[in-house]
Write a structure and sequence with these properties.
This protein is an alpha+beta fold. The protein has a domain at 1-22 and 48-68. It has 1 helix and 4 strands, in the order ββαββ. The protein has one helix at 31-43, and strands spanning 2-13, 18-25, 55-65, 70-72. It has a 4-stranded antiparallel sheet, with helices on one face.
Length: 80
Amino acid sequence: MVLAIGVIHIDIDARGEVAAIHWSRAPKNSPRVTQEIEQLVRAAAPYPAPVHMGGVSYTETWLWDKSGRFQLDTLTQGQD
């Protein structure tokens, strides 16, 4: 069972560091999940540096299960 769904926009600067995280759908039913997602995003830095672009923004959807496991929507095969 999915405990929470979160949608975030992540800004990466020219060095590959997280410049900002903006929530478009925060999992309000579980503030712990919100904190954990932000920690995971920041801990994964530095990301590949978009040197010639000055920075990038991307959107990711997190599917968080009751056991604490998660799946990123961009990595799923989808449903038929």
